[in-house]
Design brief:
single chain, 2 helices, mainly alpha
Length: about 110
């Protein structure tokens, strides 16, 4: 009664019949199916591998382009830095000359004018 309420049949299930085919025959029948499955898996793997390889090559080309762009920008930055340093040096020299000139005029107000 408990088995019936739990959904389990009161009578035992029939025994599973033993395999009637020979193992060699079963392997011959399964072999082509396994070959097809393996061929499909192999082609899918190769397709994905090729896609990843192409993606890698594309990314490597992008990285190389960015490296070239970075090198060009670094050269340009160095040029502008050099120009700014030269201009700062010129301004400093002009300021020193102006200060010297003013100092000379202050100590000798009637010389030359």
């Amino acid at each position: 009664m408990l088995k019936t309420r739990m959904g389990v049949p009161a009578t035992p299930l029939p025994a599973v019949p033993a395999a009637t085919a020979h193992p060699e025959i079963a392997l011959d029948a399964v072999g082509p199916v396994l070959e097809t499955v393996l061929a499909n898996l192999t082609s899918e793997y190769e397709r994905r591998l090729l896609a990843k390889d192409q993606e890698h090559k594309g990314q490597a080309a992008a990285v190389e382009a960015l490296r070239r762009q970075l090198a060009a920008l670094q050269e340009e930055a160095a040029h502008w830095r050099h120009a700014a340093e030269s201009r700062a040096a010129e301004e400093a020299a002009e300021a020193i000359a102006k200060t010297e000139s003013e100092k000379t005029r202050a100590t000798h107000p009637f010389d030359g004018k």
